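Field reference: sequence -> structure
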Amino acid sequence: MCGIVGYIGKRHVVNTLIDGLKRLEYRGYDSAGIAVMENNSISVIKAKGKVSELQKKVAEKLPASASSDISSGIAHTRWATHGPPTEINAHPHTDNSGRIAIVHNGIIDNYVELKKHLSAKGHKFVSETDSEVIAHLIAECFEGDIVQAVAAALKKLEGTFGIAVMCADTPDVLVAARRGSPIVIGVGNSETIIASDISAIISYTKRVIFLNDNDIAMVSAEGIDIRSLDNVPVSRETAHIDWDAEAAEKGGYEHFMLKEIFEQPAAISNAIRGRLDETQANGILSGLNLSAREMAMINRIVIASCGTSMHAGMMAEYYFEDLANIPTEVEQAAEFRYRNPIIEPNTLVLAISQSGETADTLAAVREAANKGAIVAGICNVVGSTIARETGQGLYIHAGPEIGVASTKAFTCQVAVLLIMALKFGRGRRLSRHDGMKLVEEIKSIPALVTQVLEKASDIERIAKKYADAEDFFYIGRGYLYPVAMEGALKLKEISYIHAEGYHAAELKHGPIALLERKVPVIALANDIPGKDKMIANMQECRARKSPVIATATIGDEEIKTYSEDIIWIPRSSQLITPIPTVVALQLFSYYVAKERGCSIDQPRNLAKSVTVE
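Structure field:
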């Protein structure tokens, strides 16, 4: 993995490919490359590092004067899996003849076996990657029809792939295919674009086709022919994307992450818009495709997710159990898949994923479906694989999230999950009076977040004070425990500081041994149930000389006695306060990382969408 672009059409091919790669930079990568069709032969250029390094090499080797001879091309940004980030390991990869070139996202599980088999037939490999095997395997299967060769090769692959292929013998055609790793095709006027992400396409067209697993698409400037691995024609709908390229620009902010933090009032408003029935004090969740009777029969909820989305799931566990009295558990998606989970009748499995492409979460969806669960997705990306395979669920409508560290997607996930809990609760134990109160609280979330954003300069001052620390603890209780986990994750993602989130009660069960003057503790001491116990934990930290940074409810003067610094949070209930609190922690992480000079939007070693296990 990480980013794929392919283009065939009337535009300047090289510029279009480079532009596409730049729009995929946010996904995280360590090398880049391009292959173009020039006078019926393939030219490949690669570079270690950023796309800007590739662009310099391309300018030297493919001068503008030669652009009229280039009819198509494929390009890639690589996030290293097999083999270090070197120019040789960068994509595109070719066969020994140089007549076939491929770019690949995913993991080929049986590449060692295939490599041995192909080596015995005389194929010479130059990289350490699993991906290079695909180019050689296609060449081995090629007998004049590139689509049949790709199909024959893919049948022999075990693992996941999203690929784009070009062949010098068929210069007017590109081939794309997928299994487990996303491929989307943009449909233009006398041009077609292949990509792993809509961001690379949206500047050129809003009409897109999402490939399903085991689809092979033969792409020309004039059309798209999609077939199965068995060469059977298949039909895929053309979708319309409702956001534009401007939404994926920085808009005057220094970083995408900062822009997306400040977009949260609008994003949350979009997430909750049309989903609150103020007359009935209820939620409106038409995307679930469940009747009131079917919802009432659900007696258990299992949430499968990873990373930030798993922390949103932890919030939902509290919501579903407290508001709807439904036993709920949160599973790390990979564990859900591999530990043979028990799925009882009337179990709802919720798969939460910003991208809708997270490999482990997608595998959990399939495992749950095989076991007869009702499966629904909570996704941000329209047309993503999880959204399509579940066939029901909710889009969070956060808009494009470019920063690798998720911000607005998390708060929108939490807001939507709270509305879902309201809906389930009104069908069970939640009174109309309490439902109406909650509806009003949900409507207040954007304003509460705005109040936090207005205090950004105060948070920046505190962040600069502690930016030299190399270890942080975050502690929380109840509804703020998942926020502690998420706050620590944000800090480690973008500042590279070791940070751990704990339930405050766990502090005494080992972590307290690490407390000292050099280890700040962020204590989530908002004025909600459990605050008295949190104050005791804060005193324990200070007794070990650890400086305490508290989040506290505005007006709670008592907290000043137990902390060195305070991040003030507007007053709200225990159901709502996690959202403005996590926004404050996002700002804290951002300003710490900025002070340390870190690459905030593209943190080292991280990718935006984890499409490999």
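Note: The longest helix spans residues 408-426.
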